[in-house]
TetR/AcrR family transcriptional regulator
Amino acid sequence: MTTTDARERLVAAAQELFWAQGVGATSPRQVLAVSGVGQGSLYHHFPTKHDLAAAAVHATTAAGLDAAHRDLDASGSAVERLVRYLERPRPALAGCKVGRLVSDQAVMDDDVLAAEVRAYFRGLVDLAAAVLTEDGLPDDAARDRAHAAVAIVQGGYVLARALDDPDAMTAAARGFVALLDPGPTTPEDA
Amino acid sequence: MTTTDARERLVAAAQELFWAQGVGATSPRQVLAVSGVGQGSLYHHFPTKHDLAAAAVHATTAAGLDAAHRDLDASGSAVERLVRYLERPRPALAGCKVGRLVSDQAVMDDDVLAAEVRAYFRGLVDLAAAVLTEDGLPDDAARDRAHAAVAIVQGGYVLARALDDPDAMTAAARGFVALLDPGPTTPEDA
DNA sequence: GTCTATAAAAGGATAGAC
DNA sequence: GTCTATCCTTTTATAGAC
């Protein structure tokens, strides 16, 4: 909490702004305003916008992978853990802190940032696939279903934001979970 | 094909650029360069960037809804039509022309553009839900599953772009369809 | 309807003092 | 390490002639 404080505040402000409006749309000046840090400090700690973006995006993906591990490495059956991941409460209207970066061309045109985003999603899919394989699903089917699970979450965010309705995200998850784990109400009941 | 040609070329160029890099990140100058139209013409036809964006986004959503109708209103059983929609070949690495706008704050902060995007996704979900209801699914379950289907497509785009791998999108669709329509290889077979 | 010229503001830094 | 001042470029138009 001495002098490196400015650095941390810059990264936190950048994470917040990147989430709200994307990397390309965020100016150094905005980061200064939100962080309360002075201009000289910014360019001392991060010579270019890219340097700041790399630090902020890395912090965000690391936190996201941690959260996924907490859902998927926990106790319970394979399906239970996947459902826990799918139904975790999420800020549907704000969007996914990492997912939103994928349509930000400023991110995907930057090799370092694009690699960070790729590693995040590769980690997520691998984690989900491992859980499903445990469940006795053949490798190919497990990978397909893992991709579907991650896609449901990302697509749920897109739908919720597009429709301006958080329930759109939970509906998508429910629709998927119902297929995953045919419980009380089977289609045949109708 | 007389003088309104400039207008059409401006809209086409804007659609192309918005798809590739978003609305916020696209400048009027880029639209001029791609369309080959002069600056005076742009501001004659579209006094502000918003006016151009409204025209271009509307053209894009209209085309997208048309395509969805072609898949979902066609012949075949309900599941067949839904699978046709889910498995239609898509430009996975380029992303969804409408879906990508959802994380573009310049779009979502503009009431007209946001409404256009909302109407597109509402139309998509309603269409899918109608198909599933036909199939005998109760209304609530049909809506949930319709949200899931649209989310799979949008999430598939996100995954494919993030992983820089078009197969990620088809994997997500396969994973979902396998649950929807448990065919030859049932989980129990293992 | 289209052209060229101009301009006010924001973006992304750099310079040099402290 | 941090501050203020400055700079060049791009954005988003506007002005006025043709």
Notes: Residues 185-190 of chain A have pLDDT under 50 and may be disordered. Residues 3, 6, 37-41, 44-45 of chain A lie near DNA strand D (CB under 10 Å from a C1'). Residues 139-163 of chain A form the longest helix (25 residues).
